[in-house]
Specification:
Blueprint (H helix, E strand, L loop, with lengths): L2 E3 L6 E3 L3 E2 L10 H16 L4 E3 L7 H11 L7 E6 L4 H15 L4 E6 L5 H14 L2 E7 L6 H10 L5 E5 L7 H4 L1 H7 L2 E5 L6 H6 L16 H10 L6 E2 L6 H9 L8 H12 L2
Length: 275
């Protein structure tokens, strides 16, 4: 598995991780959790580490924490969640509940979800990081309209380790509006919606993979879509969500072998835009 360093620390992070919305919002029944356990097992066995969740995702934090504990995999995982409320005290309480649900004394990464009350929470997270309650601080948003504000905050504020945004072949605004700022400020980038919440697959359904994709060790559409965004040097990790162990394996394959060069990425864009 290809890894990339977190700029603020140098810690290496595998480039393919796992998103949990909405697949991990399930009850305690074993029939619901069994495939998710295999997804987490497959992530770890395949060299991945990052699992991203949020208190916004209903039961996903609780399920993630239980499965990681069941597998004895805490030391092999990088647990990321978010704070999604207003007010200092409510923010602190929410983060502590997240730690309980994730069954961890220290959360690897807490991100300010969709920039909600970000100034208040940034102060809180800095203090928590100093005390060792969390390891890294991040910001998130999923809309292109928020990208300029994310870039502005990265340039204005110190101590931000990660930024998370949407980026895919069908949603490329981050290439211009955020990734240069992240690279310039030494901020790691996590990508959500790298396959457009599954929508990219619908557009190529029934189409064969272009033969030229084999030039960057690509054998399937999941690899095609993920390798496109992973070829951007500013990107640290992609987190496609899945509840299917087979899809987890397909996603992990994107982190192995070659990545498209500049000419091949342009070929990918032209192919996509011509569909």
């Amino acid at each position: 598995m290809l890894t990339r360093p977190i700029p603020s620390s140098g810690e290496e992070l595998p480039v393919v991780g796992l998103g949990t919305w909405p697949m991990f919002d399930v009850g305690p029944q074993e029939r619901a959790r069994a495939p998710l356990r295999e997804v987490v097992r497959g992530l770890v066995a395949g060299g991945g580490r990052l699992i991203d969740s949020s208190p916004m995702y209903a039961r996903a934090e609780e399920v993630t924490g239980a499965l990681v504990e069941d597998l004895g995999a805490r030391e092999k995982t990088f647990l990321a969640t978010k704070v999604w409320t207003s007010g200092r005290e409510r923010g602190i309480a929410e983060i502590r509940r997240s730690a309980e649900r994730l069954r961890t004394a220290t959360i690897d990464l807490v991100q300010i979800h969709n920039l909600v009350d970000w100034k208040t929470h940034l102060e809180t997270l800095r203090a928590m990081k100093a005390r060792g309650e969390i390891r890294y601080i991040g910001l998130t948003h999923y809309t292109d309209g928020a990208l300029p504000e994310l870039a502005r905050i990265l340039r204005a504020e110190g101590g931000i380790d990660f930024v998370q945004c949407a980026y895919s072949l069908s949603q490329r605004a981050a290439e211009r509006m955020l990734l240069p700022a992240a690279a310039g400020e030494g901020v790691a980038v996590i990508l959500n919606r790298p396959v457009g919440q599954g929508g990219l697959f619908g557009r190529v359904r029934g189409r064969p993979l272009p033969e030229w994709a084999r030039g960057f060790d690509c054998t399937g559409w999941a690899e095609f879509f993920l390798k496109y965004v992973l070829a951007e040097p500013a990107v640290t990790c992609v987190i496609p969500a899945t509840g299917d162990p087979l899809h987890m394996a397909q996603n992990l394959a994107a982190g192995r072998g070659g990545l498209p060069d500049a000419r091949q990425r342009q070929q990918m864009r032209e192919f996509w835009d011509g569909l």
